[in-house]
C-alpha cells in the first residue's frame, strides 16, 4: 500500500499493535532537559524501575541556564539543574552540563552531533521537538508522564495521526526566509489547524532550503497545533549528516543512505489534508498578536478585529491588540521595539547568526534598543567566534551571550520588563511568554537585525 | 493514578479561546522538581485581575473548567495539568484541546471532555444563570448534566478505559517487555547511540 513519509516511519517502529489500543512505538532517541524530567525520574525511583536504554538518551541543560558568565543564582533554577545532574548520574544517562563543549539547546545539540537521522523516532519533553522532523524523522514533544514511560520502556503508546501535506510551491523571493514561510503557514491554517496531524513540508521552496532552514520550519509545526512536521530526506540531508560524530560511517553509511532514500511519500500516497502556499508571493512576515497565527506580511497594517468573521478569533484579536498596546490600521513598520532577541531552538543556529551579522555588519543598533544574540549551543558559539561574527555583533552594540534558551521563555534571567516590546526570532508570542507584561513580535533573524538598527519593525531592504 | 468515574463540582466558565499553557502556568513557575504545589502558578497573570473568574467568590472551590476552543495549546509542560489538578480541577470541558495537553491530562486523571462550541455556550449560560452551580461529568455514560442540560461528550475509548480503571501506562507496557526486546534485536546496526 502506498504510504506517506510519516506513515512509513511509524510503521517501521511498531512494537505491538492490538485492536482498540494505541500502537506501541519504539523510540530511537530520547532527549531530556532539566524542566520536564525531574518528576519522571522520581516516578522511576518510586516504582523501582531503571532507564531501559541510557545509551539512547541524552540530557542537556538549557531552559534555566543564564547566558552571562557565572553560576546560576536563582536557587530554584539551581535545584532543577542539580536534580538533573543527580538523576543522570544515578541512572547512567549521558549529560552535557553548563560549560561543557557540547552543551546547548536540546534541539540544536541533537542535530549538530548527527544524532538525529532520517527515519528515526525522536522524543523530548519539549514541544519544539518537531525541529528534528527536518531530517525525515518522526519527532514530537511529550509530557513528563511520557518522559517517564520512555525512560522505563524506550517505547510510547501512541494514537494514530492524520497526515497533512504543506505544499510550498515555487521559489522564495530574495530576502524571504524559512521563518517567513512557517509564520505564513501558521497564519493560514491557524493555531489549531494542524491538530491531530503530522505535517509534511514539500515543494520546490522546501527542497531548496538548507538543513538548518528546514529545522526552523519544522520547529514551529507545533504552533499550528501539529505535534510533528517533516521534510523528506534528500541529498541536502545526507550531505549535512556525513562525517558528523554520530552519523553512520564506512559500510554502515551506504546501508543507511539506501534505507533513507526510501523515506519519501509515495507518488500515489494520499494525505488526509493538503495546503498550498505560493512561495513566490511571500514577503517577510511578522506577528502582531499573542498567538503565532496572528501574523501578517511586514508591509501590512495591524488588522481591525471588526473585519474578522469568526467570533472567537475576533475576540482573541481584540484582546491581543489590547495586550500588545496596538491599534487597528497602524502600519507594522511603525511599531517601535525596545528589545531584539536573536536565538532559540527556532533561529539559534550558525546560519541564523550569519544572517543577522550580515545585516548588522557596519551598522549600529539604534539608541535605546537592547539587542541580545544568543547562540543555540556551545559549538555554534565557537563557530561564530571563529568566523568573527561575535565581533560584528559587539561592534554593532549587540550583546554576545552564552548558549541557552534565553529570552524565548522567561525562565532564566533574560526577560522582558512589563510593557517592553521585542522583535524575537523565537517561536511564541503568548502573553507573558518573554516576561510578565512583555510584548513579543515573532520575526526572522534578518528582520530582527534590521529592526535592531531601525528601532522599528523593519526588513533589511528598509535600511 | 486515581480512577475517574463520575465527578460533581462547581463549573467555572473561562470565556477565552486559545488558552495556551503559558497562560495556564507561566514558565517561571515550572521550577519545582515535584508534582505538587503548582496551584500558585495557575493562570498567574490573569489572577492579578480581581475580576478574573477564579477570583470571584461564587467560583471558589470550582472543579470543572469550561473553556473556549483550543485549550492547552503551546508547550508540552505537564505542569499545566498538575497546576489545574493541584488547584482542584478534575475535568476541563472545551470544544477543542491541543494534542499534547490532552495526552498529558489522560496520564494524570484530569478528564478532558469534548463537546460542541454550542454546548460550551449552553454551559456558560447555565453558569451565568446560577453562578457557582455544580454540574456532573459522568465518564461511564459520557454525559454532562447541568440543571436541565444533558450533554453527551467525547473522549476516546482507550483513555476512558484507563481513566475508569486508574491504570498506569508504564505498568501496562512492561507487560510487553519481550516484544520490546525482540524489536530491539531487529533494529538496524547503523542507528546511533549516544555513548
Question: In terms of structural class, how would the helical and strand content of chain B be classed?
Answer: alpha/beta
What is the tally of helical segments of chain A?
A: 16
> Main sheet of chain B?
7 strands, mixed
CATH superfamily of chain B: Aconitase, domain 4
**How many domain modules of chain B?**
1
How does CATH name the architecture of chain B? Alpha-Beta Barrel
Distance between the termini of chain A: 53 Å
Q: Give the strand order of the largest sheet of chain B, numbering strands 1, 2, ... along the chain.
A: 4-3-2-1-5-6-7
In total, the number of strands of chain A is: 19
For the biggest sheet of chain A, the summary is: 5 strands, parallel
Task: Characterize the overall form of chain A.
Answer: globular
- Quote the CATH topology of the largest domain in chain A: Aconitase, domain 3
| Helix/strand class of chain A | alpha/beta
- H-E string of chain B: EHEHEHEHEEEHHH
Given as residue ranges, the uncertain stretches of chain A (5+ residues, pLDDT < 50) are none
User: Strand share of the residues of chain B?
Assistant: 15-25%
Helicity level of chain A, as a percent range?
25-40%
Shape of chain B: globular
Features:
heterodimer; A: 463 residues; alpha/beta; Aconitase, domain 3; 2 domains; five-stranded parallel sheet; B: 195 residues; Aconitase, domain 4; seven-stranded mixed sheet; 17% strand
